[in-house]
Here is the input.
Amino acid sequence: MDLLQISQQGSLVVFLLVAVRTSAAMAVGPFAAWPGVPLPGRVLLGLGIALALAPAVPTAVPSDRLVLGPVEIVQELMLGLMLGVAASLLVSALQFAAGMVDFHAGFTFGASIDPIAGHQTGPIEHFLGALASVLFLDLNGHHLFLLALADWFRVAPVAGTPHLAGPDDVVGFFTVIAVAALTMALPIVTPLLLVDTAFAVLGRVAPQFNILAVGLPARNAVVLVVLALLLPITATQLGYLFGHFADLLPILMHQ
Here is the structure.
């Protein structure tokens, strides 16, 4: 869409409605809402995407009959936020898993401020969050997210009546995220449980043994070794998860 087309009333309304949805999705979408990314940059990115998508997006009514009213604006804003939050949750599955590992391994004692996430995280979550960011870009996750954003307009046309999914579909979406996080966390947490069991038995057999002095370093060593062995498998799982953007996100709305 060029500036001449935008100057026409119908095309301008379509562009503005598409821009509201894309800007909202980019504002809260994966890796677009980092504290280091300024809000004007996110808005400009959403406007650029809207400029590319506006000529091809379907509309519920002819473009010359579209109205830029508060109801239409709020509806597009909510649809964009829904997509962005869902995508962010999907990408954050590894960080959820890393948080469980930090808690069970005792790494939360060394929590610090993550400059990417902007909040306090443990060292494992910090490391795996950075790994997820690199893999997201390396596996073309940003391209897959843009394809899902374009497909979102097919599922929910501009100014159309959205048919939101039922509770079962929403629960299924969150179940996918929880299962993905548990799948990545359990291979690391399970050896920790075995180590805790071994030290509990040792503490009963030899009460004079200083469990606190030896237990925490042993747990940390087990986590680091298992994590290093599982990194290739974790990368494969993330690639599989990113590749299902287009399949999982429309679950939130009936086609």
User: Anything to note?
Assistant: The radius of gyration is 23 Å. The chain has a mean pLDDT of 77. The beta strands are 112-113, 120-121.
